[in-house]
């Protein structure tokens, strides 16, 4: 079973978490100024990699923190994770 | 009744002092405690046990374990029975009742066997080539095909068996308690690792129980018992017999099913490391009529003799391509049976002590089996000479297949073809990180090697786990009586000669000819072959057939086996009952319903409930002795609110408190109408969008204090809104200082609505000034009611003068009853969701889920005017996209029944013409049908592409045969200026 | 090529079945084709067949990195239906359903399309209204469906728990009689055989590694077996779509997710229709072999492999036993997963792309199998005419920028929520 190491609670079964999808693109700081195409890219276009994928999970049945997780969509290894400010992320 | 095939033998797993009586196909037999159904049947001389899937051929017991393809039975009372169980896996108990499957009228005389006459037609995939003309006839052909298919019957009465689930964590999971597994478990356990050792059989010891061997100076049975005793004495070790590891999942999780006296237990085991000591399974040979009852695997016969004291025949022939079957010959002779001949495919026979006087034929083949319901003789061919050998048992061995399924769950790249085994084995001793392969499943052949590998795997695992060092387990001395025989097999499993059918897959009746046909027709990928012929797709999952099938395919294609490759290995390793997978969480324990704090009062007072998300809410109240229908009751409840006063339990609405320095800013970004700017002690109705611009949820925002707000959500979206808010607070605007707290369950909330509601409130709280000036529309005040903090809101969903009163949840019932008492002089009545629906439709208030379904914009539903300011809020940018602003989008409109009488059907489509059955263009749909007590006329809300008020359409429901001509109106039917709720 | 019929079967039986011709010929790639279709699944093979049969374009190759029919056409739960609320989805699947109804004869290959009906269960008056909303939309457009009473459901599906105090008491249901199941592998094989007969090359074990362009126009594909020239290239590769589109710098509104299904051991017939239960997105049917086929929700997070996890199966089985309380002792025999290319609005993409001569058929989410004949037919027309066919107009790629999404369910761009 997929296990997610919550930085606040420790490693838990993924069934304690809710998936939040692709976390590659931040919400534009000022949406009014972006073009339809850019807005579409933010809303809908996805890298969909077979490999490392940055994604959101919320520890719904735990601390309720939203996390940014880098997970490999082939091996399902959690490569790194962190909170909002994560760039490269902490090593899991 | 006697057991003619039972003999006395040392070291048996059965207890002769405990005789058990059981019934098979209506006839009573005796067996012993420790027997399986298969061993007990064989003890009683019963070989014919079942019929095959396609041809209804008579079938007997082939094996002694999980690989059994033939001997499938129904166990237990009809209706509450378990179908398709393998007789080789059913422990015998007193009073056991089992039946054969897939035969009629009886196992011996099965009319279905007539299908064999047509068997030349019934080759692989024949159904793809016919039954096409005439086109309407397929459904009739199919009926016949469906009836013929299937094995057992599905149970029909509610399953009352007990199923439990356990979540377990261990350092090391050892799968298989044969010699390798026992050694691995002992090695790791001595180093203080927490070990779980499992084996699918009741009796542990694996292959040792069928071999004639001494270990460390003891019999195999004694050695196994001593080893287990050491393990079981340790608190850190759990031994689980009759437990199958059915699947390996990611991140070190294994699924296990344990069979106990009480029922089944599903263990979810998280193991830091695992040792696979799963052994090997013997393969049959493929030859003419190789499916006859009395043709059995050679190793299985050793097990029947040495574990159960059952000799399945008096005069046996043996057909083999490897040495291991010679041990069966020795074993049979020790048990007093005659060995008529050993037929060996190979050029040279091994020299095996104790078999000097047995006829051994080399370069010989079995080309036929006589006796349709039980072997009478075999025909053999040596060189060009044919011979008939009379026998009542044919022991076959086509080599052994290491059991590598769990290693391959998740990918086949862990395996490589090994010529000596004629099968796939792991590429190394740790083919998957953290998982060790050891013993026969890892390609070890001699017992000494198997034991040594077991010790090594246990040590390696303990080392990797960081366990402290301890005295290592010494490799025990092994003595084979008469010498050890190798399972290495000749690379041939198939006899070319012979006239009968040559079965590769016994359960699904797949023959060599079927495989050849598939290849001839171009189905050449092994997956195509499997799917076209159904090879390996039976309940035995091809355990005895896959390798033989692959070998034949490779040979015919002129390829190596590893070029042909295997099909995918998928969980479960053996079939797992649905009950075990569900555990106790099905039926009434699935999605446990939630109830409001006032629920019990509703029950006592005739409420009829309906689900709302996971909540149960009163739909209406069936007053005793009134015999009202839903509609009558709801109209009365609604009218009472309009005319007098009513109360409704709205505790289930989601409630979230938002606090912090930036709470107002946060709410402004969340709602389209700047709800953060609501005044102190004021409420504001707000609408939230998703980021894609469509309406997400609605509710009220109340400013309780500076930097402190309470928001309400719809019942069904409470969780989703909370998560949405937390996401934006934590991940999008973490710079905002906001704290979000769900408080839904902390409060019981009652809506008090109707012209008399102020009087009722004044009576309830005489000390409070509830006048229109003191508590105006959209006002809020915190008060004290019966000593507890109480929140008083002046908000209205019904369109009447109304309040919502919130008290801590455990005071909900007190409040409810006090309101009823205070309202008694005013004719107060509770009202349910149905009446609430009437009231809000009349008022043009919308409901998330029915009117608002995730596909409408604020403009579509007439709320575009709520959008305030130029600041960003969630969804604002998306609203500017062309498709969300274009003309012609369906918009919210109201409808009244044109004749003032005909009800507007629920879920109706809107069309231009009266419905006569001819398809028409849809102009929209009714979202909320209702009845207006004020207008005394059916009304409705809907989404439609219509222009003008006053236009006429038809609301049609072809499904129910209802329709009504409707007139388009504004989507508010009652008090459009809102004077009543402000008054 | 031998025509399949009971007569040819008898004739060949008399000759020991030794002379059946190859149904699936294996060919090596030629240097150039008019059209290359990437992905020898149901959609790709069907498109090749209709290109040859309806448009006379026979210089066509269908190439696949694995074995033909090895993707989702081999992994679905075989359900065919057109009971959609959204008019565009309904029109498309209705076109497919009409093609399904004559498909065995059209292909001269029995795909066992079996119109055993699909029953959607309702467990509250609200759910009946929801079904009726869909049913009325279907009926008004001429797609017949019918509401069922509890008694009618009990009669059709006796093993269902229809007691009023059940956890999910059954209040009614809706049936589309023309819906049903088909033998999934046979669909791929039947289209492959029929297309091959018309001259289409089906090339297996040939992986596309690049899409060759010249002046913004497609000129072929690079593969593990060399360069193959083509004036037009169509992608019909489901879970492989994003990777392929990336080769021309195109990022798609798709995510790969895993959908699991399982079958029980075979039993004698107990379930004639397909039964679905919307609360947990559970569906069940019985194959001609007797296995009960169970399907449920997505695993719920992006996944590029077909290997699933246990909790979704447990959830599926919990629902099954809640609805069918007698089946606890029946055993699950095989489980598997399929990578589904989930789109951002839950609807497919059938579209031209920004690259001239490159077409895409993807994003079929859960629903690719049922659409197979129509997807093939419409994709063939798109390729042959270079014009967007009427049925494909709602499904073009540009709908995401404009916001003209085709949402059967309103979950927004959260593909793992779609069913």
Strand content of chain B: 25-35%
Instruction: Just name the CATH architecture of the largest domain in chain B.
Output: 3-Layer(bba) Sandwich
Order of helices and strands of chain A: EEEHEEEE
Do you know the CATH topology of the largest domain in chain B? FAD/NAD(P)-binding domain
Cofactor (chain C): FMN; FAD
Protein name (chain C): Sarcosine oxidase subunit beta
Keywords (chain C): Cytoplasm, FAD, Flavoprotein, FMN, Nucleotide-binding, Oxidoreductase
Catalytic activity (chain C): sarcosine + (6S)-5,6,7,8-tetrahydrofolate + O2 = (6R)-5,10-methylene-5,6,7,8-tetrahydrofolate + glycine + H2O2; sarcosine + O2 + H2O = formaldehyde + glycine + H2O2
Secondary structure blueprint with pairings:
The complex is a heterotrimer of chains A (about 90), B (about 1000) and C (about 425).
Chain A: E1 3-6, E2 10-13, E3 18-22, H1 36-43, E4 52-58, E5 66-72, E6 78-82, E7 90-91
Antiparallel strand pairs in A: 1-2, 3-4, 4-5, 5-6, 6-7
Chain B: E1 15-24, E2 27-33, H1 37-43, E3 50-51, E4 58-59, E5 72-75, E6 82-86, E7 96-100, H2 126-129, H3 138-148, E8 162-175, H4 179-190, E9 195-198, E10 213-215, E11 218-219, H5 220-232, E12 237-240, E13 243-249, E14 253-259, E15 263-276, E16 280-282, E17 295-297, H6 298-308, E18 315-320, H7 324-334, E19 338-344, E20 360-361, E21 364-370, E22 377-382, E23 385-390, E24 393-397, E25 400-402, H8 405-408, E26 415-418, E27 423-426, E28 435-437, H9 447-465, E29 478-480, E30 503-505, E31 510-511, H10 512-520, H11 526-533, H12 546-557, H13 561-564, E32 576-577, H14 578-582, H15 599-604, E33 607-612, E34 615-621, H16 630-643, E35 646-649, E36 654-659, H17 663-670, E37 683-689, E38 695-705, E39 708-713, H18 718-732, E40 739-742, E41 747-753, H19 757-764, E42 780-785, E43 788-793, E44 802-808, H20 812-823, E45 829-830, H21 833-843, H22 876-879, H23 882-885, E46 891-897, E47 909-911, E48 924-932, E49 937-944, E50 952-957, E51 962-969, H24 979-982
Parallel strand pairs in B: 1-7, 8-9, 8-15, 9-12, 15-28, 17-24, 18-19, 18-24, 19-20, 35-45
Antiparallel strand pairs in B: 1-2, 3-4, 5-6, 5-7, 10-11, 10-29, 13-14, 14-15, 16-25, 21-22, 22-23, 26-27, 30-31, 33-34, 35-41, 36-39, 36-40, 37-38, 38-39, 41-44, 42-43, 43-44, 46-49, 46-51, 47-48, 47-50, 48-49, 50-51
Helix pairs in contact in B: 4-5, 4-9, 6-7, 10-11, 10-12, 16-21, 19-20
Chain C: H1 6-14, E1 32-38, H2 42-55, E2 60-63, E3 79-80, H3 87-101, H4 103-107, E4 118-122, H5 125-140, E5 146-148, H6 150-156, E6 172-176, E7 180-181, H7 184-197, E8 201-203, E9 208-214, E10 217-223, E11 226-235, H8 241-246, E12 254-264, E13 274-277, E14 282-286, E15 292-302, H9 310-323, E16 331-343, E17 349-352, E18 358-362, H10 368-385, H11 399-402
Parallel strand pairs in C: 1-2, 1-11, 2-8, 4-13, 11-18
Antiparallel strand pairs in C: 3-7, 4-6, 5-6, 9-10, 10-11, 12-15, 12-16, 13-14, 14-15, 17-18
């Amino acid at each position: 079973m997929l296990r997610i190491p919550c930085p606040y609670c420790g490693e838990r079964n993924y069934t304690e978490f809710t998936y939040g999808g692709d976390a590659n693109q931040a919400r534009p700081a000022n949406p009014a100024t972006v073009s339809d195409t850019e807005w579409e890219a933010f809303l809908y276009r996805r890298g969909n990699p077979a490999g490392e994928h940055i994604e959101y999970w919320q520890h719904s049945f735990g601390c309720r923190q939203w996390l940014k997780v880098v997970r490999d969509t082939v091996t399902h290894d959690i490569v790194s994770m962190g909170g909002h400010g994560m760039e490269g992320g902490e090593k899991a | 009744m006697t057991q003619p095939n039972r003999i006395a033998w040392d070291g048996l797993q059965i207890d002769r002092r405990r005789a058990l009586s059981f019934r098979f196909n209506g006839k009573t037999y005796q067996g012993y405690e420790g027997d399986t159904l298969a061993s007990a049947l064989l003890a009683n001389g019963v070989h014919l046990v079942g019929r095959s899937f396609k041809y209804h051929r008579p079938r007997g017991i082939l094996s002694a374990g999980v690989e059994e393809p033939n001997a499938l039975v129904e166990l237990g009372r009809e209706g509450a029975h378990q179908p398709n169980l393998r007789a080789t896996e059913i422990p015998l108990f007193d009073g056991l009742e089992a039946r054969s499957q897939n035969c009629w009228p009886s196992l011996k005389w099965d009319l279905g066997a007539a299908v064999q006459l047509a068997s030349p037609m019934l080759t692989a995939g024949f159904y793809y080539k016919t039954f096409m003309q005439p086109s309407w006839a397929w459904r009739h052909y199919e009926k016949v095909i469906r009836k013929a298919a299937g094995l057992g019957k599905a149970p029909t009465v509610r399953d009352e068996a007990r199923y439990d689930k356990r979540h377990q964590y261990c350092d090391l999971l050892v799968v298989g308690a044969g010699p390798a597994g026992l050694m691995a478990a002992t090695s790791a356990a001595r180093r203080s690792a927490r070990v779980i050792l499992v084996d699918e059989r009741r009796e542990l010891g694996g292959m040792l129980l069928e071999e004639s061997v001494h270990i460390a100076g003891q019999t195999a049975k004694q050695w196994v018992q001593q080893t287990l005793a050491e393990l079981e004495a340790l608190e850190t070790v759990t031994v689980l017999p009759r437990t199958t590891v059915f699947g390996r999942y990611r991140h070190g999780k294994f699924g296990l099913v344990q069979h106990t006296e009480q029922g089944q237990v599903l263990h979810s085991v998280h193991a830091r490391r695992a040792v696979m000591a799963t052994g090997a399974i013997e393969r049959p040979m493929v030859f003419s009529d190789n499916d006859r009852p009395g043709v059995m695997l050679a190793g299985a016969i050793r097990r029947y003799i040495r574990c159960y004291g059952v000799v399945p025949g008096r005069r046996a022939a043996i057909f083999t391509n490897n040495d291991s079957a010679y041990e069966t010959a020795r074993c049979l002779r020790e048990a007093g049976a005659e060995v008529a001949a050993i037929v060996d495919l190979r050029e040279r026979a091994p020299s095996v002590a104790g078999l000097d006087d047995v006829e051994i034929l080399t370069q010989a083949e079995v080309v036929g089996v006589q006796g349709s319901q039980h072997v009478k003789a075999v025909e053999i061919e040596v060189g060009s000479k044919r011979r008939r050998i009379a026998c009542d048992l044919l022991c076959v061995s086509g080599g052994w297949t290491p059991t590598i399924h769990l290693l391959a769950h998740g990918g086949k790249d862990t395996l490589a073809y090994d010529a000596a085994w004629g099968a796939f084995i792991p590429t190394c001793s740790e083919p998957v990180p953290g998982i060790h392969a050891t013993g026969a499943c890892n390609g070890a052949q001699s017992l000494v090697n198997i034991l040594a590998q077991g010790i090594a795997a246990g040590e390696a695992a303990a080392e990797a786990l960081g366990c402290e060092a301890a005295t290592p387990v010494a490799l025990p001395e092994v003595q084979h009586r008469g010498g050890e025989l190798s399972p290495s097999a000749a690379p041939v499993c198939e006899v070319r000669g012979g006239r009968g059918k040559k079965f590769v897959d016994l359960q699904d009746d797949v023959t060599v000819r079927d495989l050849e046909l598939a290849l001839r027709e171009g189905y050449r990928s092994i997956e195509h072959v499997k799917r076209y012929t159904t090879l390996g797709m039976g309940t035995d999952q091809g355990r005895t057939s896959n390798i033989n099938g692959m070998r034949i395919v490779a040979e015919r294609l002129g390829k190596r086996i590893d070029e042909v490759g295997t099909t995918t290995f998928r969980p479960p390793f053996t079939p797992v009952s649905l009950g075990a997978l569900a555990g106790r969480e099905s039926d009434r324990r699935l999605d446990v319903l939630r109830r409001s704090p006032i629920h019990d009062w509703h029950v006592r007072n005739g409420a009829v409930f309906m689900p709302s998300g996971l909540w149960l809410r009163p739909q209406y109240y069936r007053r005793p002795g009134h015999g009202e229908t839903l509609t009558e009751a709801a109209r009365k409840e609604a009218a009472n609110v309009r005319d007098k006063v009513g109360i409704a339990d709205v505790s289930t609405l989601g409630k979230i408190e938002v606090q912090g320095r930036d709470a107002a800013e946060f709410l402004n970004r969340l709602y389209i109408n700047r709800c953060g700017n609501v005044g102190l002690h004021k409420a504001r109705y707000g609408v939230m969008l998703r980021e894609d611009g469509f309406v997400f949820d609605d509710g009220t925002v109340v400013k309780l204090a500076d930097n402190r707000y309470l928001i309400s959500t719809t019942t069904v979206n409470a969780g989703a809104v909370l998560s949405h808010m937390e996401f934006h607070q934590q991940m999008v605007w973490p710079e905002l200082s906001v704290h979000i707290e769900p408080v839904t369950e902390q409060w019981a909330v009652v809506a008090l609505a109707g012209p008399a509601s102020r009087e009722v409130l004044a009576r309830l709280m005489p000390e409070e000034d509830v006048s229109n000036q003191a508590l105006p529309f959209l006002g809020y005040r915190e008060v004290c009611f019966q000593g507890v903090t109480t929140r008083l809101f002046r908000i209205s969903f019904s369109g009447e003068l109304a309040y919502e009163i919130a008290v801590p949840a455990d005071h909900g019932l007190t409040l409810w009853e006090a309101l009823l008492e205070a309202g008694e002089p005013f004719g107060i009545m509770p009202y349910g969701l149905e009446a609430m629906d009437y009231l809000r439709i009349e008022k043009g208030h919308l409901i998330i889920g029915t009117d608002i379904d995730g596909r409408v914009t604020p403009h579509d539903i007439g709320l575009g005017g709520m959008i305030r300011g130029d600041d960003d809020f969630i969804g604002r940018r998306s609203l500017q996209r062309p498709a969300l602003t274009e003309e012609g989008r369906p918009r919210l409109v109201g409808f009244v029944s044109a004749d003032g009488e005909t009800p507007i059907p629920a879920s109706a489509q809107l069309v231009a013409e009266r419905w006569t059955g001819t398809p028409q263009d849809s102009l929209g749909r009714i979202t909320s049908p209702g009845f207006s007590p004020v207008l005394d006329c059916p009304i409705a809300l809907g989404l439609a592409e219509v222009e003008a008020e006053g236009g006429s359409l038809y609301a049609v429901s072809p499904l129910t045969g209802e329709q009504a001509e409707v007139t388009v109106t504004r989507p508010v039917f009652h008090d459009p200026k809102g004077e009543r709720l402000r008054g | 090529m031998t025509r399949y019929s009971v007569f040819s079967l008898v004739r060949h039986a008399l000759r020991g079945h030794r002379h059946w011709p190859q149904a699936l010929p294996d060919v090596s790639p030629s240097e150039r084709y008019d059209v290359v279709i990437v992905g020898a699944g149901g959609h790709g093979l069907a498109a090749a067949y209709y290109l040859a049969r309806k448009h006379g374009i026979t210089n066509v190759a269908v190439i696949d990195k694995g074995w033909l029919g090895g993707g989702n056409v081999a992994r679905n739960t075989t359900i065919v239906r057109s009971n959609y609320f959204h008019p565009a989805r309904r029109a498309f699947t209705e076109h497919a359903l009409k093609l399904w109804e004559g498909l065995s004869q059209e292909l001269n290959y029995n795909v066992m399309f079996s119109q055993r009906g699909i029953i959607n269960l309702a467990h509250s008056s609200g759910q009946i209204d929801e079904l009726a909303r869909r049913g009325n939309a279907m009926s008004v457009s001429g797609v017949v469906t019918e509401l069922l009473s509890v008694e009618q459901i009990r009669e059709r599906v006796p093993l269902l728990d229809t007691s009023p105090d059940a956890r999910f008491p059954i209040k009614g249901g809706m049936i589309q009689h023309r819906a049903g199941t088909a033998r999934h592998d046979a669909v791929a094989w039947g289209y492959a055989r029929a297309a091959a007969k018309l001259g289409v090359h089906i090339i297996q074990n040939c992986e596309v590694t690049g899409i060759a362009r010249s002046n913004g126009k497609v000129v072929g594909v690079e593969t593990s077996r060399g360069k193959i020239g083509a004036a037009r290239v169509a992608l019909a590769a489901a879970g492989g779509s994003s990777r392929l589109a990336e080769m021309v710098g195109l990022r798609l509104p798709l995510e790969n997710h895993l959908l699991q299904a399982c079958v029980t051991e075979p039993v004698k017939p107990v379930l004639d229709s397909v039964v679905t239960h919307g609360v947990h997105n559970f569906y069940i049917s019985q194959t001609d072999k007797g296995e009960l086929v169970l399907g449920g929700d997505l695993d719920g997070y992006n996944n590029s492999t077909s290997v699933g996890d246990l909790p979704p199966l447990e959830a599926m089985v919990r629902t099954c036993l809640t609805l069918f309380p007698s089946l606890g002792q029946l055993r699950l025999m095989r489980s598997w997963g399929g990578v589904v290319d989930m789109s951002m609005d839950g609807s497919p993409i059938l579209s031209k792309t920004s690259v001239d001569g490159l077409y895409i058929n993807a994003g079929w989410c859960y629903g690719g199998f049922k659409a197979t004949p129509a997807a093939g037919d419409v994709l063939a027309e798109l390729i042959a005419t270079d014009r967007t066919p009427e049925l494909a107009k709602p499904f073009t790629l540009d709908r995401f920028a404009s916001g003209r999404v085709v949402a059967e369910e309103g979950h927004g761009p959260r593909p793992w929520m779609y069913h």
